[in-house]
Amino acid sequence: MATAQENVISVRNLRVGFGDRDVLKDLNLDLKRGEILGFVGASGSGKSVLARTILGLLPKRAGTIEVFGRDVDKMSEEERQAVERRWGVLFQGGALFSSLTVRQNIQFPLRENLHLSQRLMDEIALAKLEMVGLEADVGERLPSELSGGMVKRAALARSLALDPEIVFLDEPTSGLDPISAGDFDDLIKALQQTLGLTVFMVTHDLDSLHTVCDRVAALSGGKVIAVGPIDSLLESKDPWLLAYFHGKRAHSRFGKKK
Amino acid sequence: MGVEPVYLQSELQGKKLVLSAQGDWVSAHANEIEPQVENILNQRQQAERVEIDASAVKRIDTIGAWLIERLKRNWEKGGTKAAITGLDPRYKVLLDEVAASNREPPKTRKRETPIADTLAYIGQSAAESWVDLKALVQFLGHVMVAAGRVLMRPWTFRFTSVVNQLDRVGFRAVPIIVLIMFLIGAILAQQGIFHFRRFGAETYVVDMVGILVLREVGVLIVSIMIAGRSGSAYTAELGSMKMREEIDALRVMGFDPVEVLILPRLVALIIAMPLLTFIGSMAGLFGGGLVTWLYGGMPPEVFIERLRDAISRSTFEVGMIKAPFMAFVIGLIACVEGLRVAGSAESLGEHTTASVVKAIFLVIVLDGLFAIFFAGIDM
Asked: What element of type H or E holds B252?
C-alpha cells in the first residue's frame, strides 16, 4: 500500500521560533501518501511545534510547507479551509469540546461542513465510535465523564469524522496502559488500511514506532537528523539516536534483536 | 450541472431486485445520496433476493459505506437476502468495518413534554437553592475552622499570598473605582441641583451627596464593582484549578486548600474593601463637589462648610463598617462557586456567572439588613 510515493506534505527549510530562540532550523520533511510516519525527539525539541506549524497554528519564520502539492502561503482562505477538511488532528489532551457530548463532538465537523440528516449523523457518529472501539452509550457522555483512554479514542473518532486523508496524532499512546496502547496501535494500523489514511504520529512510544510506523523521523537540534524505516535508525551511529534507541529503557526492547 | 446526478437505481429482474450504485459515494455528496437511498427504501419493493451492484462506484468513504450498509440491512431485516457485488476490493475492509457497527440500536433518551420539563426545571432549581445554602454554610464552617487553625499557629499564615492578592484586588482596582465613584458623585450632584433648583433648595444637594455617598452608594457601588471584578476572577481561578486537579494535588500533599488558597483571598478582600470604599467615597465627594461648583455655582469652601454640617462621623462609619462584611460575602460566594466547578468549560462559565449574580444579590440584601440594623440603633 505504501508504494505510492506521492508527497502529501512536504516541508522545506522550515524555521520556527519563539522570542530570540529558533526551535526549528532549516527543517526538511516529507510525508508520503498512505504511510505512517513516526516522529521522535527529546521532550521540548519541537515535535509538537512542527505539527502545529504545519497545521497553521503557529507562524513560521522561513521556509515553505506544501500540503497536497500546494504551498500553504499561496492558498486563499477557501482553499485553506478545503485542506483543513482533509486532515484530522488528535491533540495530546484530546481537546474534546467539554460542553458537548461525545456524539455531538463527533458530529460537530459533520454538522458544520456537510448537510446531513440528523439520522445519518447519528448513525455515522455511532459507526465512528465503534470503529475506535467505544461502546455506543459512550456517545451520550460528556468528555469529563470519560477515562484517559476513552478520551483519546473519542478524540480520534472526532478527528476521523470527515474521513480525512491525513491524521496528525500528538502522542496518541501517552498516558495509556500497555494493553490500551497496543490496542491503539492496532487501531491506527487498521484504520490506515481501511480508510487509506496517511498518519503523522508524534510519539515516544518505542513499541508504536516498531509495530505501526512505516518510517521514523528523528528530530534533534531543530533538524531532522535521520529518516527511514526503524531498522535503519537503529543502526545509525548518531550519538543522540544511539542514546534514544539504545538507552536503558530501549535496551529491553531492541537490545535483544542485535 | 443543475440536474442532480443519479447515485442509485433499482430494477426488478424477475425475482431479483438489482440496485445499481454509481458515482462518488463520499461525504461531500451524502446530502444527495441519502434521499435517493431513502426513496428506494420507501418504494418497499418485494423480491426474493436483492443485489446491490457497486461496480460503478468510483470512490467510497465511511458515510457512503454506511449508506450501502443501510440499504442492505433494510432488506435483511425483512428476511430477504441481500448481497453487495462488484465493489472495488480495496474498499472491502471498510465495508466490513461499517457492517460490524451500529448493530445495537442506540438507547435514546426519554423526552419529556415541555410542561413536565419546565416543572422539573423549577423543582430542580428549588432543590438546588437548598443545596447552595448548605454548601455555603458548610464552607463557612470550613473557613472558620481553617481561620481558627491559622490563629493558633500564626506563622503558618500565608502573608506573601495575601500581599499578592491585595495588589490584585486592592491596588489595581483603585483607578476604576475612583473613576466610577467620581462619575456617580458627579451625576448625583447634577441631578440634585437640577431637581432641587425648582424648590430653591440647591444647597441641600451637599447633604444629599454627602450622606448618600458615604452611607450607601459608596460601599454598594464598590461592592458591585468588586464582585464583578475580583469575585469573578476568584471563581474562574479556583474553578480552573479545580478542573486541572490542582486543588486535589494540594490536598494529597497534605495542605488544606481552604487554608492555602481561600483564606489569603478572603483576608485580602476584607482588607482591600474598606480601603477601596474610602477612596471611592472621597472620589464621589470630589465629583459631587466639582459639579456643585461648576454647574451649581457653589464655591468649594461653601461646599466643604456645608458638608461639615450635613454629615456626622457616624455617617462615615456606617459606610465603612459595612465594607468588610460585603467583602466577606463576595469572597465567600466566589470561592464556593469556584470549588463547585466540574469538568467542563461550560460549568466554569456557569459558576462564574452564578458567583457574580449571587454576590451582587447578597450584597444588596445585606445592605438592606444593615439599614434596618442601623436604624434600630439610631446611627
From this structure: helix B246-252
Distance, in Å, from the CA atom of B303 to the CA atom of B196, rounded to the nearest integer, reads 16
Q: What is the separation, in whole angstroms, between the first and last Cα of chain B?
A: 85
pLDDT at position A258 over 50: no
What per-residue confidence (pLDDT) applies to A250? 65
DSSP β-ladder status, A166-170 and A198-202: parallel
Q: Please tell me the predicted confidence (pLDDT) of residue A2.
A: 43
What type of residue is A220? S
For the whole model, what pTM was predicted? 0.70
User: In angstroms, what is the C-alpha Rg of chain A?
Assistant: 18
The whole-angstrom distance between B204's CA and the closest CA on chain A is: 56
Q: Is the ipTM of this complex over 0.85?
A: no
- Give the one of B34, B94, B344 whose C-beta lies nearest to A194's C-beta: B94
For residue B235, the distance in angstroms to the closest alpha carbon of chain A comes to: 18
* DSSP label at residue A255: G
Chains A, B: CB pairs < 8 Å: 82
**pLDDT at residue B104, as a whole number:** 64
Residue B283 to residue B286: CA distance in whole angstroms: 5
In a mutational test of the B interface, the residue from A126, A135, A187 whose CB has the highest number of chain B CBs within 10 Å is: A126
In A, minimum Cα distance to B33 occurs at A116
Q: Which of B70, B93, B346 sits opposite A194 (nearest CB)?
A: B93
Give the model's pLDDT for residue B110.
Answer: 64
CA-nearest of B352, B350, B334 to B265 is B334
The minimal CB distance from A114 to the residues B30, B109, B346 is found for: B30
Q: What is the structure's pLDDT at B181?
A: 96
pLDDT at B328: 95
Question: Please, where are the H alpha helices in chain A?
Answer: 47-54, 77-85, 102-113, 118-131, 148-159, 178-195, 206-211, 230-234, 239-246, 248-254
Strands (E), chain B: 8-13, 16-25, 49-60, 81-85
Q: What parts of chain B have a pLDDT lower than 70?
A: 1-3, 102-111
The C-alpha cell that represents B235 in the structure block: 471563581
> Confidence band (pLDDT; 50, 70, 90) for A60?
confident
* CB atoms near residue A241 (< 10 Å): 19
Position A1 pLDDT exceeds 70:
no
